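Supplementary Methods, section 5.1.

A reviewer requested that the exact input to the structure prediction be made available. We therefore reproduce it here, unchanged from the version used in the analyses.
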Amino acid sequence: MSQRITIAGEPAFQEIGQCIAAILQSRIHERCPAGPARVTLTLAQDETIPAEGFRLVDGPAGLRLSAPDHLGLLAGAGKLLRTSQYGAAGFLPGQWRGLAVPDCPVRGIYFASHFHNWYQAAPEAEINRYVEDLALWGVNAVGAVFPFIDLNGWEDPEAAGALAQVRRLFRAAKRLGLGTCLFTGNTLFANTPAALRAVPVNDPLGRRGNTGAPVCPNHPVADAWLHDCHRRLLAGLADIGLDYLCVWPYDEGGCSCASCAPWGANGFLKVARELAELARERFPGVRIILSTWMFDTPPEGEWEGLTRALARGGHGLDYIMAASHEDYPRYPLEQGVPGELPLLDFPEISMWGLSPWGGFGATPLPARHERIWQQAKEHLAGGFAYSEGIFEDLNKVVVSQLWWDRQAGAREAVAEYLRYEYGPDVVEPAQRLISLIEDSHTRAAGKQPVQPERVREALALAGEVDGLLPSSARFGWRWRILYLRAVLDHERYLGGSLETPRARAALRELIQIFHARPVDDGSDPYHGRVRPPLTNP
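The structure derived from this sequence is encoded token-by-token as follows.
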């Protein structure tokens, strides 16, 4: 590879400077391998810039990128890449200069590494590359969960591999200086004895879930086992480090026994307090996030009870996280955040309105995420987006950019994404393509008929854009999953079947991109939730 950018780093940034140099050179080489242009970029420490911000200016020896820390440098390098030009003449830095500072301090992605999805199946090199890409967009934390739900004790043959998987994701984050967040709760192993299990939660609306094997924290033996399991889990992360612990209430957690109910204002707080203490024994600086996902669904006084409990102080929490399947929860916006703590979001960027999740390619929903953001943006300190794979890559970019600049819009983020990933010549038609796909997705999710003319227009636009793309973009996975989504929407809505040769070829390609199993043999009963629905491969 020929040298494209010379990095001149000040002493404080020499190590991260080498990493940034490698990232920049690889991205530039992919887009213009033969171009002669050369650029000198000086990395400088400037502690007057707010945390994780950056300033890009013209200096006497070329470009000068200043930041107070390495995360600011990574975000600044990403801005430089996205605003530059690539072509036969080589790499040409763009005209963007100035200061950029993130509005929200927490900008994380939760990698749901299960069901043999991309996070679980992709090679480590691809994971590392993807985390680099997210860091260039200003993402500053990665979350993961240890899958107690899938294992029969620490002696399970897959337990060591499951811990290695969490470590792999956290290593990918830490090599760039990103934070790490462990999501957990009161769910333990699948073979948990019946006598220790929690009473199923009240879920008449079918929104909270009763999966996994949660234990009752007011059962002394179960509570002791919960502590022991988490001590062992935290010890397994000791050499990597943990920056956040997010305690989760429902789906794979909860208990409705008389001693725990109402869960969100009672037993759950006991679990959170005790797990926080364990985490701080091992990682003194860890920040504790209390999730309120599906609180008062149905109403049980959870929000009010939580407010009363935290008003007493001594809770040891750093953040409250709120989210639901649809609109942002109203209580913290209208009544105030319990404990007057910073409020985080948990955008559902993967599952909404589609099954299998990502099974038909890209799921771009920028308008939906901006609409929900507008409901709560003035109250939020950021969040962690819930991700089941790379099929919602664009959604990650949209929410991360809204967290970076709360006054910006999704359309701006989409345009910057398209300009960088696909090239400046296709921004307008590609934006229209995304809008058409989101329209069909939203209509189908709402049980409304899709508009046939829009499905046809999307496929035609996909073909038009495909013919205009440079080869570096045309054969890249980000374009292919969007292109294949237009193909599959046409086949399933207008062609009448996913069994056509065109549909089957598209599904087969998606399986390869997502590292899904070529044949769903049933060994993972949940793999069908993320696997493109190809039958009889």
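The chain has 17 helices and 17 strands. These observations are discussed further in the main text.
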